[in-house]
Amino acid sequence: MWIVLNQPEEKMKSPAVWIPLFLGVVGSTSQELQFTKNPTNLTVSQGNSARLQCAVQGLSEPEIFWMKDGEKLYSTDQMYINLDQDHWATFHSVKSVQQTDAGKYWCVAEFNGVSVSSAPAWINVEGVPHFVLEPQDVATLPSMPFNLSCEAVGPPEPVEVVWWVDGAPMGEPGPSKSVLPIPGVTQSIKFYCEAKNTRGISVSRTGTVHIKVPPEAPSAVQVIEVQQNNVTLSWTPGFTGHSALNACTIQVSQNSGEGVELPEYHVTVPPFQQLIGGLKCFSNYSARICCDNEVGNSPFSNWIAFQTLESVPTAAPFNLSFQLTDEQLTLSWGVLAQEQINGMLQGYRVQWDLGGESQEALQFRENTVNLSRGGRFSNATFRVSACTAVGCGPWSQPVLVLPVAASRSPAPRGHVWTALLVAVLTAIMLGLLLTVLVRRRGKEMQFGAVFEPVSPGTEPAVSFTATRSFNRQGAEISESTLESLGISDELKAKLQDVLVPERLLTLGHMLGKGEFGSVREAHLKMEDSSVQKVAVKVLKSDINSSGDIEQCLREAAYMKDFHHANVIQLIGVSLHRRPQQCLPVPMLILPFMKHGDLHTFLLMSRLGDDPFNLSLQMLVQFMLDIARGMEYLSGKNFIHRDLAARNCMLNENMTVCVADFGLSKKIYSGDYYRQGSASKLPVKWIALESLADNVYTSQSDVWAFGVTMWEIITRGQTPYPGVENSEIYEYLIKGGRLKQPPDCLDDIYDIMYSCWSPNPKTRPGFPFLIEQLEGLWAGLSPGPGKEELLYVNLGEGDGPFQEEPGRAVPWQCGGGQKEGEEDWLMVSSGAAGASGGDYRYIDPRHATGNYCQAGPCGPPPALQQEEAEEEETDSVINV
């Protein structure tokens, strides 16, 4: 006979304690899962032993547990017995029965997703009475009659009940169940009941009669979200006065100096949150709230002030007029009222048409402008609109500029012919110059242009223009191929069609560097001779092991097959040939990511020199983008193993792409990957089972996604503040998890907390996470699509719109941009701006101290040995 003793769950967590006595073979069974024996009712004297039994048929291994009063039991006395093939019996034993052991028991068997319950049985314990209904607290109006109830049972029976009110017995003992009528009270009192049988007396809990009163004023009134014409308020109710709140009243007052109060808003609660609409743009308001219950109203809360957002002007400038002379055109128009501007007036936009064709718009700060050479505007039509930082309003009525009334003397004909002759000569000279340039271009060879044409009879002169640099001290290095790397034939075949010749790449300045390499800005020459801006990950030149190179190139092979909007895609692979080195340096060509890695972006929103606001809707959109990318990867049987905000990139559309697959693995069979040797891993993002057993599944990526959600909602804070890397496993095994941030909604925290279940099978999958986040995102904003951060740049002068110095889009930091950095997130607090590739290693001085590297391709590599490398200070835990 085979027997399995189940250890309690807390002991099973330690391998040194859990010693299974049976090793079953999981397999399918053709028998129906059914109970052949159900537990029977027992009546036991207190202190004696009791044992319940049930048997189930249709199991190939024991998957039976006991339930008591709806709760699962974890008992050291539970035992399994194999009765026959696929037939098992189990027992639940209690050595010394107490009153707490009394209750309803039954068995539950689970197999292949099927769950079956046995018939229930009761354990009745003979002893002092046991309360099945204890007195409960009562909230009542003054002098209002009410009843108190109490019930206790044996065995043995009968049971008598005596009531105690305000420390004195009330009435005579009576049978259980007992109901005590109270005619009404005007102040709070205490009460309890005593139950007596032949075994002794039991005393119930002490209840309290509360007198209902009006509620207290709400607290923590705050603005959740403010828009152009509405605001969302939330508040925390005060003491409810021992009665449920019926509704709350919101008063909103416009702080315009007129004391105008808007109509009151009466809202049902909960939830304690309300959208207030019908507000004016760019206006100051104050709001306060009170709540009521059946007794009365609470006092109002303190006023909270807020300002609605800017909008475009609602009216067009009026009274557009002009004055025209040969030398100057003067335009002027009326100034709009403040309530028509809907914001801070940034300037005016002037559009003019001439001969039926629209000319380039002009921009001005003031409502009066002077344009030189007024004669050129004769018969032109002008219109004007006012602009705020959000955009421009409607156009004014067009005004036709009539020519000057006084006749002008015609220009001398000689001047006209002179100008025409100069124009013809200029065109001829330009044509000759273009001809010479074309001939020189046609003679360019691989290393430059040679042998310029000379006059007959003279020696040909050699003109050389270098198109590539080379070492004059030795032979030129030939183009590298995959054959020179010593990698597997399978990997060569996968990368052959994405191999890019090195001569097509022009490397720029370094964007980030780390222990194993660097990321550089680069320009890639395409087949149509156009140039594409890219980011290049380059393995450090002193890493010359073929195994390290192959592992790096495997990351490229993974990325080659990715085609998803939220997963970074490989553009190509190039090989940099090194003098006196056998193996070339691999370079991974990736899309240029304008806003760099998500972690740095979030940090700059809080800690940059010019912090900026990220709305909750945008943060949830970041989470949605990552979840969609991870759903795509898991659908391709791909485990990332290093999901974190630092490994997610932001493109120019503010779309997040999952990146950095240096630790990733493809699953070819089964649903898990086991790390074969000791590795350095990002422990604060690693799932509990991965830390314990080096086993990685899509469910372990879900755990990391929950940590990434926490990073996003905290704007880049380090997970588990105050917990060292070496302490993470012990912290998690004891049930510790990341705490809910102060400004994190309960719904968001519930989603991320579900990702940290100790049982991987109970964690949500990425499709379910997407569904939850989409519902949450839809509830944050009424409009479809992503939030757009709009920016209107109004410069000076009478030309087209030009960007002003010192102006930047909301997510850029600093006062301006240096030459050659127009597309980069500007950082002036020490952490470098990042774009494309893996930007965990933007600056080793700002390393988070939470990443433990598992391979040479995890961090971005560096190209030259002579570049100064600063060793990162990341803490490491060897698993």
Tags for this entry?
879 residues; alpha+beta; Immunoglobulin-like; six-stranded mixed β-sheet; 12 helices; disordered C terminus
Structure description:
The protein is of the alpha+beta class and about 900 residues long. Among the domains are: about 5-125, Sandwich (Immunoglobulin-like); about 130-210, Immunoglobulins (Immunoglobulin-like), CATH 2.60.40; about 220-305, Immunoglobulin-like (Sandwich); about 490-590, Phosphorylase Kinase, domain 1, CATH 3.30.200; about 600-780, Transferase(Phosphotransferase) domain 1 (Transferase(Phosphotransferase), domain 1, Orthogonal Bundle). It has twelve helices and 48 strands. Strands 3, 5, 6, 9, 10 and 11 form a six-stranded mixed sheet that branches. Strands 13, 15, 16, 18, 19 and 20 form a six-stranded mixed sheet that branches. Strands 1-7-8-4-2 form a five-stranded antiparallel sheet, with no helix packed on it. Helix 7 packs antiparallel against helix 9 (about 700-715), helix 7 (about 615-635) packs antiparallel against helix 12 and helix 9 packs antiparallel against helix 11. It starts with a strand and ends in a 99-residue tail after the last helix. The model is unreliable at about 1-30, about 405-410, about 445-455, about 460-475, about 665-680 and about 785-879 (pLDDT under 50).
